[in-house]
Structures are given as C-alpha cells and as structure tokens.
Amino acid sequence: MYRKILMRMRMRMMNATRKVVVGWAKEYKRYLSTTTTNQILLSPPLVSVDLPEIWGSTSTLYHHHPSQSPVSHAKIINGKSIAEEITSRVASNVKRMKESIGKVPGLAVILVGQRRDSLTYVRNKIKACEEAGIKSVVAEFPDSCAEEDIMTSLSKFNEDPSVHGILVQLPLPEHLDEEKILNLVSLEKDVDGFHPINMGNLSMRGREPLFVPCTPKGCLELLLRSGVEIVGKKAVVIGRSNIVGLPIALLLQRHHATVTIVHACTKNPERITCEADIVVTAAGVPSLIRSSWLKPGAVVIDVGTCPVEDPSAEYGYRLVGDVCYEEALSIASAVTPVPGGVEPMTIAMLLCNTLDSAKRLYGFT
Amino acid sequence: MYRKILMRMRMRMMNATRKVVVGWAKEYKRYLSTTTTNQILLSPPLVSVDLPEIWGSTSTLYHHHPSQSPVSHAKIINGKSIAEEITSRVASNVKRMKESIGKVPGLAVILVGQRRDSLTYVRNKIKACEEAGIKSVVAEFPDSCAEEDIMTSLSKFNEDPSVHGILVQLPLPEHLDEEKILNLVSLEKDVDGFHPINMGNLSMRGREPLFVPCTPKGCLELLLRSGVEIVGKKAVVIGRSNIVGLPIALLLQRHHATVTIVHACTKNPERITCEADIVVTAAGVPSLIRSSWLKPGAVVIDVGTCPVEDPSAEYGYRLVGDVCYEEALSIASAVTPVPGGVEPMTIAMLLCNTLDSAKRLYGFT
C-alpha cells in the first residue's frame, strides 16, 4: 500500500519532469532559432534554463554522450577570436543605437593607485570601449586617497545619465572598505555584477541578476560557443573567489551541472578534479593542474594568469595559467590557452554588460 | 631559474598559510574559551572562519582523522534536545533583556491561505515564541488576497519598532510575486535570511549576512555541537533549493568543506554521495538515501520531512525523511532522526535570529 503510494508519487513526479524538460528543450530550440544578427550572446537567458527540483529514480531523463576516450590533441578554444566577434557585434549594436536614438553606452571606471596590473587592465578596457564606440571615463585617485573622495565620485557616476556602467578596479588599497564602496554602485549600473543583490540573485533559483560578473560570464560563453554540453555534467571549479570561482560555480549550477568547488583546504584536489567533465580553474597558481588532474576528454577553462619572469619575453615576463597547457592538450578534449583564452572574454563581457545596461535604460532592443 | 622562482613563491605561500591557519586556530580556541552562559550558539561568527585563498602543494596543512571504518551503530543526533537547550537559553536572554531594558524581541508572521503544513509550521513557531517570551503577531490573509494587501502589511511591520523579525510563510499562492514580497522585508528584520542581500553576503567571502536562513543554520549547529569536523571534509548537499540546499552548501563552504551539490539533473548521485564525509539531504523524496549511498562513518543530516499515509499513526500519516533511517544507522557515524532531528532546530534558529535582531537594534549584549 505504502509502496504503491510512493510509486504513484514518483511516477507523477517523473512525468511532470519529462513534460517540463521537453517544454524547456522546445523553448531553448525556439530561442536559438530566433537568434538574430543583433543577438550578441548564444547563451539563453539565465532564468529560462531553470528546471523544477523534481527527482526521478532513473537516469533516463537526460541523454549524455561524453567523449571519455583519450584524444590525441585537444581543441584549442580561441577566446581571442570569440571575443573579437562579440566585440564587433557590440560595436554594430552601439552604432545602431546611436543612429536610431542618438545615444551611446557609457562606462565609468574608478582607478585607485598605480598597480601595474590594474593600470594595464584599465587601459585595455578603455581601448576596447573606444573600439566598440562606447564612451568611457576614468576617475583616477592616488593610493592614499580618502574613502569619501571615491564615494563622492561614485555617487556622481550613479546620478550621471550618460553613464550606464560603473566599474571599480580591484583590488583597492587596504585602507579602503571594498564592501562599502562596491555596495554604493547603483544596482542598475553594476556591470561587474559584484553588488550583493546581483550576487544573491545569481545564487538563487528563479531569480535573475541584472548583471553577471564578466569573467565567469566569459567562461560560460566559451563553453556554450564551443558546443560543450553542461546539463548533468560533473564540473569542478578550482578557487572560490567572489569575482571568479564562486560566480562561475553558481552559473554552471544554473546550467544544471553537478558542481564541486575545490579550494585551498580541499584534501586531494587532484583526485576530485580528475573526475570532472568540465574544469574551470582560477587558483592563480602557475601550472598547478598537471595531466594527472584531468579526465581524458575533459574540457578545461583556465582563468589563471600569473606573470612569471622570463628574460626572453618582450617585457621580461610572460603570463602562465593554472594549467600545464602542453600536458592538457594531450588529454583534454578542449582547452583555453593563456593568454588568448579567458582574458579577452572578460573585456568583451564588460562591453556586453555596458551595452545591455544602456539598452535596458532606453528600452532599446 | 624559473623552477626556483616558483619553488620560492610556493614556499612563501605555504609559510603564510601555516601562520594564518595557526592564528585562526588560536582565535577559534580563544573564542570557545570565552563562551559564556549568555552565548547561545557554539558556532564562531561566520567571517572569523575565513581563510586566505593560498594554495600549498602538500596536504599537511590540516590533519584529519576521519573515522572511515564501519561502525555497528551510529550516534543519533538529538535535534530535539539541542533545540530545547537553545530555546531555553534564548528564553533566559529574553528575560534578561526585559529586566534590564524593558524590551522583548518581537516576531511578525505573514500567513497566506490555509495550507495545512503552513498552518502547522506557523502554529509551532508562535508557540515557541510564547515559550521563549518573544512577542509574536500573525497577519493572516485569504488565498485570494491582493498583493498590495500583503505589501501594506509588510511595510507596517517594517516600520513597527516592536517588531524585530518578519517572516513570510512560504510557499505563497501562485498569483503572488514571491520575489517582490520577500525583497520588501527590511534587511534588518529578515530573520529568514531570504533577502537577496543576505543571500549575496552569505555567498561572498569576507562578507557577513545579517541573518542566516534558519534550517541551514540549524543543520550547521547540529554538526558543530556534535563535534563534527568540517574543515577539509567532503560534503555533499542533496537538493539546491533557495531555502535549504543552496544556503547549507554556502555555509559548509564557509567552514571550508569541499562541497558538491547533487540535484535532480545529477547523473549517478549515489556514487557521488557515497564519497562524502558529511551528507546533508533536502531532496524531499522519502527514503531516497539507502545505505549504498553512504560512506562508512559518514555524518548524515536529514532535512527531508515528507508525510506518508500510515493508518496506524495518530493522524493517519507519519513523517519520513530522505534517508532510510535504519540503514543509515548501520553505516553512518551519526544521523539525525525524522522527526526530532533538523526540524526542531529550524524553530530554535528562528528564535535566535529574532533575539539577535532585537539585541542588534538595542545594542544589548
């Protein structure tokens, strides 16, 4: 009797899931088929990939065909060319916006201090904005500046109708309260997606953040554009920072991967990582990930970029990822290079977020 | 040369980590030793368990002695008695507050419709408030009520200085916008911790939410009070709901477990779960977790409570958890029963959150 009730409940749940899954698949196909040339990203809206939390006792709901056999040479995921394609679509959208409503998106950057890496990042962002036709402005502050000065500048950008995105270049000097400063960024202009409301809405099922942090969004875009199936796959994210590890884990979970976050306290991270179909690594430890960490056929997204001394390189150093690239090439099915993998995508996503913000404000489609 | 630089960097990082870990352990011990009778919870403040994200190449930083050998009979984690102890401490704190500043904490509950389970939950919460000396008020609305009525009532509670905690009993009828309603709850009175800012701050490293959702907080408290080591342990959370699965995963990660969330799309959840040292299950599927899902010596926290028909039971049904209890007893090292495990803790944590809110408002320690 009890068994029968349970069986009936379970059957009902499974049927409900099937219907929803079929419905979702149809919706997704419709979404893809209606993608126009104005559509910049391949990825469906975050919320539309939400499924109800109904459990079935079989594993027949999804059919996966993982390529688990060793491959001789992985596909190289060319972030540079994907980012260029996205940037050129942003540029044509900006042009169209300017022609039809006489407005262009605007990005404001707050830069504190003279860190060499921050200066480089900001310079690259500004350059990318120029190329895409996005107006940009940088408010520079000395290392020793008062918190109030930054808050005042931020408030002005919040009020400025020509600014659609505000970016505080991190890290800030230690004497400044990062949380207080980031929380002041208007939710509608938080193109970095670091406001706790955006992060909370990224975490929660059925909610949609106004902006998704740029690097994680770029990683997801690389996966989607490379045709990597995510639903039901085992994903390991290495690193749990607020700006990369955490949000990429949340994004992968939204896309229904089974996600494990590996971090500095994890025992035997190698053993956990080598079971993953998808590895996203943002540990910032050069060449941490050897071939023994990877499952044959895994897809590897390397967010790490550490400068290491190299007298033979142009500037005396070169950038090295978390992954032993050559080793990964021989075992993975797809790998991002460093440089030229994730990092150009970060800027491309920043342009997308800034454009989206302006579009939202003006109701421009 | 390059190797040497790397080695030196790695050594420096490892030394830094050791210092921080030792420092943290000292701080934690000091915290425990200063715990007074007024201290309700054992758990340290969330932020103090934060460690820097520094990677070492060895696994000697933490020493774990997992009890992996099969045990004949698991310890039963008695949530009922732990909850009673916490409730009685809340009551004595409330008494002390009343005597010294003439105020008592107040909880407001919004209840929409006549769902039997919601009515029972609300009745139990109100009863617990009464027993602890916390003032409570319930605003009841019919199933068909207008959203504006709830919003108006909520706004009044937000303004009311005698209300320190506001709780919207979920689920709401389908025609109501849950997100909109929950977002209106004043952050300072969000004792359920479901506001996206609280959830965002729970997700982010270095941030501290004003309130942690009650059931997840209760699960963590059960683990801590049972002396379960969490740092570096493999934890599997089954279910990814906003109110249980997600926040308990975030909490376990804050306590430095390596967390995997298993959900309806996970392939072979049994294989993943049976590697976990700690299993928290909130799938809501009666008896989903058989002994084959559990690693010998695992700690099992069962959040599931499903009513199943049982003519021999007092009300014609009985509550069944996600876990096959008898089977778990023979393989786990500790298990929560259903009922009497997690669910009394949810209410105890609600009382704690409401008391904390009043203490914060009045600066009462």
Can you characterise this structure?
2 copies of one chain form a homodimer. By secondary structure, chain A is of the alpha/beta class. Among the domains of chain A are: 103-211, 3-Layer(aba) Sandwich (Rossmann fold); 212-346, NAD(P)-binding Rossmann-like Domain (Rossmann fold). Chain A is built from 11 helices and 11 strands. Chain A has a 6-stranded parallel beta sheet, with helices on both faces. In chain A, strands 3-2-4 form a 3-stranded parallel beta sheet, sandwiched between helices. In chain A, helix 3 packs across helix 11 (343-362) and helix 7 (214-225) crosses helix 11 (343-362). Chain A is globular, with a radius of gyration of 22 Å. Chains A and B meet through helix 1, helix 6, helix 8 and strand 6 of A and helix 1, helix 6, helix 8 and strand 6 of B.
Spans of chain A of at least 5 consecutive residues whose pLDDT stays below 50 are 13-39, 44-50, 56-71
Overall pLDDT level of chain A? 86
Strand order in the sheet with the most strands of chain A: 1-11-8-7-5-6
How many beta strands in the DSSP annotation of chain A? Answer: 11
In angstroms, what separates the terminal alpha carbons of chain A? 57 Å
Helix-strand pattern of chain A: HEHEHEHEHHHEHEHEEEEHEH
Question: What name does CATH use for the topology of the domain at 212-346 in chain A?
Answer: Rossmann fold
Q: The biggest beta sheet of chain A, please?
A: 6 strands, parallel
Protein name (chains A, B): Methenyltetrahydrofolate cyclohydrolase
GO molecular function (chains A, B): methenyltetrahydrofolate cyclohydrolase activity; methylenetetrahydrofolate dehydrogenase (NADP+) activity
Domain Tetrahydrofolate dehydrogenase/cyclohydrolase NAD(P)-binding (chains A, B): 213-360
Domain Tetrahydrofolate dehydrogenase/cyclohydrolase catalytic (chains A, B): 77-192
